[in-house]
Amino acid sequence: MSTGFFGAIDKIPFEGKDSTNPLAFRFYDPNEMVLGKRMEDHLRFAVCYWHSFVWPGGDPFGGQTFERPWFGDTMELARKKADVAFDMFEALGVPYFTFHDADVRPEADTFTESRDRLNAIADYFQEKMDASGIKLLWGTANLFSHRRYMAGAATNPDPDVFAYAAATVKSCMDVTQRLGGENYVLWGGREGYETLLNTDMGRELDQMGRFLSMVVDYKHRIGFKGTILIEPKPQEPTKHQYDYDVGTIYGFLKRYGLENEVKTNIEQGHAILAGHSFEHELSLAAALGIFGSIDMNRNDYQSGWDTDQFPNNVPEMALAYLEVLKAGGFTTGGTNFDAKLRRQSLDPEDLLIAHIGGMDCCARGLKAAARMIEDKALAGPLSERYAGWDKPQAKSMLDGSMTLESIEKRVIDEKIDPQPRSGRQEYLENLVNRYV
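Now predict its structure.
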């Protein structure tokens, strides 16, 4: 490896389920065929730049625990960070990576200088992407870490902050397009409020709607072929987030006429914080036509905040990928590991082991979901439960040919007296467990 940060490790091999090697895949075989498609093409794994190479290991009660040779605010260190990142991408064999602008270049004193630094790193990325074949799943702008964004970006009461954020997004979209990114994500980390005492909610929502409309317009002007994604983000860091969950985002998109232009990037941890299951958010996004991509991680269910741990719960992954497959699978989207090491996991190989375990977990979930689909394990009982709606009289209640009056007459004339039927939930839960 070019940097030697990970020692002598070259490429993580696939050794099968009986392997005890922590630096080998047991279930993720990129070339295994699943439902007629390579596993790599189903899962479309991406490694995120921020948690893997930027996060210092802090938590709400303590600061940095990680010491990395690329930590610092110079372009030389930014290039060193890129060297290590691509070493890891290649070792894992992932097809994609993702980044925020602030992850890959040091912040400068002016917008112009920060933009120029981003473009310089993009040139460096392009060389590495050409050499390795690794692609960009999506780019995004960090509109939340700097103190200028303490009251939001698009929703900020200061129009100069709105302008600075808009210019930043433009520069990041330009780089994303130049690098062949397949999506562009808007992650509204501070688009919300702490108290209504100093907030005009209607004004802020209109600002956010205008901001997103300008992003969509710019996408079309520059001919960007990728998908614009919004990531649902509840509760943290602000008390009330405007992009709380999939349902909230859909209502927002409908209000501003963007429901056919923007899709969602759904994170497992955020779904839990919103009081939902991951599969609920995936299923709802698919039903509303706004499913795009996923950020894969998990939360500690005993903590009330976003712990961003690597996935290790196969039944959860099976239900998640079942919804992805039912939605037709990914198009431009993929599985991005928005997950970070625990602050005590200090060693370089911990970064590899965490991703290996997460990739294996997702692979097992995908294969279980695929078997359920092949066997019609859930589709059969589901079809049976709704079979009554296939009858002509039932269809006529939904197609507009019947009114409340005519329905009432039918109930009276036919002496309809429906009796409850079991939903068989326990049977279905046990059925799922057979596959995982």
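The mean pLDDT is 96.
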